[in-house]
Predict the structure.
Amino acid sequence: MATLERRELGNTGFKLSCLGFGASPLGNVFGDVSPADALASVRLALRYGINFFDTSPYYGDTVSETVLGNCLHELNVPREEIVVSTKCGRYIDGFDFSAERVTRSIDESLARLKLDYVDILHCHDIEFGSLDQIVNETIPALQKIRETGKARFIGITGLPLEIFTYVLDRTPPGSVDVILSYCHYSINDSALIDLLPYLKSKGVGVISASPLAMGLLTDYGPPEWHPASLELKDACRDAAAHCKEKGKNISKVALQYSLMNKEIATILVGMNSPKQVEENVTAALGLSSLGIDQELLHEVETILEPVKNQTWPSGIQ
Ligand code: NAD
């Protein structure tokens, strides 16, 4: 069986499958997922060599962590064979990046995940907090957690790309091991590319999430809560319709586009069914063996050109 390519994540020593399993759908945030479907999805992902799983206490108000923990436990996965990340600071009832809250948070997450440690603990969506608090209080608290062994590495996540330089420019080298960016390396928005040389110079590993732009680049479209403008939603819908007319699938070409940049260690896709796992792994393997459908990519890029790199406001800065 062909296996997924693995790529190094900064200086962590991890070799992540180029396709990572985003577990937010397991918190039912894109529609209900049965425990059986969740288990079958995780089992199939592991069988195909996906070794990276990402969750957060925020996803489905802790449901995603609990469901992922149950699946990994039930499948008896050898701990050293997987890389698990979770987050802290963002909860269903709001944000709290205080040292006290994040220190409590990791214990709560480990209990739900049924794990002794996570591989990466991210500060979740830091643009909603004071970035100076992140630098002066949260990251030092996470470093203490790292010293206890409850988390092996530290990450920061969020939408606006400036947050990463703000924090990395103000923290000593090695304080932040990885960043998780989302919705900035897809066909419609590839703004992350400009930040890659900087991140490399800092020795920071790069995880990029949401290659399907949180549902914009799918046949059935985004969930109701999706924050994109109507203009962007319409353009993506037109691009999806165009692919469908040609008997092709927008999600496949979108995922392949994101996977092409090898400076990015892994592309996190939210998956909620074995069918989606199968399709995404097939797309990743197809990219390695056959390459991307250049003609289709060009056509989709042309449709999305008027909205290229259009994003939406996020945070309080
Ligand atoms: P995504 O772009 O991966 O889209 C997910 C949606 O697409 C879901 O509805 C999923 O069921 C569907 N999907 C997956 N494969 C498909 C296929 N082959 N065909 C059609 N539809 C398909 O967005 P996402 O789930 O938001 O992002 C991926 C993961 O990245 C998340 O689960 C989460 O773990 C992480 N993430 C983190 C942050 C953050 O830290 N701030 C933000 C966004 C995402």
Summary: The chain has a mean pLDDT of 97.
